[in-house]
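Field reference: sequence -> structure
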Amino acid sequence: MLNQAFIQKNSDIQKQVSGSLSKKQAIDLQYKKEPKQARAKATCKAIIQASAQILEEEGYGGLTTNGIAERAGVSIGSVYEYFPGKEAIVAAVATRLVESMLDKMQAALQHAETLELEQAMQTWIYSLYSISREEHKLLKVLLFQVPFIYQVPAVAGMRTELFRLALVGASKTREQYLIQLSRESLYLITTMTGATLLQMALMPPPGLNLEAVLDELSQKMVQWLYQVRDEELEA
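Structure field:
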């Protein structure tokens, strides 16, 4: 019931926001002026951090440029000096979030590569879940309330970046465990595990032991990889 209520609430919010934005011909998601000096970068960082906090607390509908300026401790003129509107600020928030998550995933992958397959897979699965869960409040708002979120280049390109990380991992898997994965199999693994872990992080299933689910997912992935290897050896 809680998950259904959450979905309905965010669906209603998204419809309201979509209606207001549909009247605009275009949405400017770029910086008005790229910050270059240290002071300018600090100002933009404060604006982006303040916006992320407001989004988590009040949702997209509660985000205003006046509220951002007040929370960031800057003038409204400073906000509009670097951003054309709140949409561009949200795009900057989403971009920084994606970059941060990808950096953490890269670090997790590098650590997993030093382990045996079973432990490596478990470490990778748990890391992906933890990274998403850590940012679940902001992710919920961005994914469920911001109607233009997939127009943000970093968000639109995240699937490609995840597949790139998977290709790196597959290369190591081939070298260390003698398992050759096709790009099609790799796509399935990346898509299924990514969607499952994101769903668990944003809307944890009631009545289920999350650790048991993560362990089961890890074991299934390892079994699949060993099956692929055995089929190749028999061929």
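Note: Residues 18-87 form a domain with the Arc Repressor Mutant, subunit A fold (CATH 1.10.10.60).
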